[in-house]
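Let's sit down with a protein and look at its sequence and fold side by side. Go ahead whenever you are ready, and we will take it from there.
>
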Amino acid sequence: MGTLEKLSRTFTPRKYKRIRKLSQTLEAERRSLSILRRPIKTLYYFNLMLWKLIISGVRNTYHRKAVRRSVLLCLAIYAGLKATDRADVVESSLSFISWWVGLGILSSIGLGTGMHSGLLFLWPHVFRVVTTVEKCGHTDFESYSDVWGTRGDHAFSCKLDVTPKGEVGALGLWKKVGLECFLWGLGTAIGEIPPYALCYSARTAGKKNEDFEEAFSSEGGGDKGALSGYMGSWLDWMLRLVEKHGLAAVVLLSAWPNAAFDMCGMACGHFLMPFWTFFVGLVIGKACIKVHLQCAVFLALFRESSRSAILSYLRRSLAVQVPLLGGERNLGDFLSEAIVKSVENIRDGTAGGASSSSRGSLVEDFREGIKSVPNFLAFLKGAMPSPVSLAMMMIVAIFIISCIEQLARQYKAEEDEKTVESAAKED
């Protein structure tokens, strides 16, 4: 221990032996911190270290003059608007932004187990917009109040003084829902920060404590199965990709529905990628590319004309009989029926939303969304996770456990250093 080496010259042989024994005992206790062997104590030290990092981050942010001045300026502007009864626009905008960004955070913050807020709220909202556009023949109607389980009195209502312009194109529909999709994608990007921050802190602690390299070492004793070896090599490939290409790797890995993206965030934290490089890559990949590609797919499925073309194409091009489907049904008919049923479930869950002017309750919307999810999830993801998904979840769990153990050991190391210093001052 560094403290022991610094003070060793002032010790008598007897005192040095006593302090050295104490140091070795504390080091053995620190190395014994493990989720499997001592879970309660490990989680205790991890929570202490986590709170220390949070408080340190808040304190450092507070001491920056630019942050304090920006906050004070925003509060002063809001107070002025409130005093003149002009704060309604600001409050409604903040409500709108916090709703969609918050849903995006809930969707991705659970390390692969987050809430399916897109299927529950975003895509039903997009469906309501599409059906209203098809009914009204234009996009000049109010839809931004469809937040927090309530809708405005005139939400999704056709304006009588606006002349229908015929069929609205895909670009017009995207403009109507693009902001909601971007904010939701921004929330999913924010939800990926905790794995990055956890590994970044553990890697920083690893610079001070060599135990970190042991926790993340890919070399180990014992025989490894074929699947474990394959997943380990895949993880090594992702680590090298992030280390070599940085921002470009983050954008490419986040620009498509990647169930293993948590690994990318952990790799970025492991290699101490600057926060803004990581976050900008996330925003470009998730909020500017992926969510809008998903939106294009759902718009094509929700529009009557494009959905009919897609179903006709599937029936013609996939007219192949599959024995597992039973009877004489072919693959094209099966997929077409699944799409139609999923769209009908979403329509049933949002019935009356396109033209109703009454306020809905959050509980009712949530229950309606739940009804539309099972078949849609079964069609898109399957009822059970695949072996590859399970293997990825295991790797993520191992990665997270290693970070927790390292942060716990780092806090214990700082505590042990203080203990040794106190013992050295005693006679």
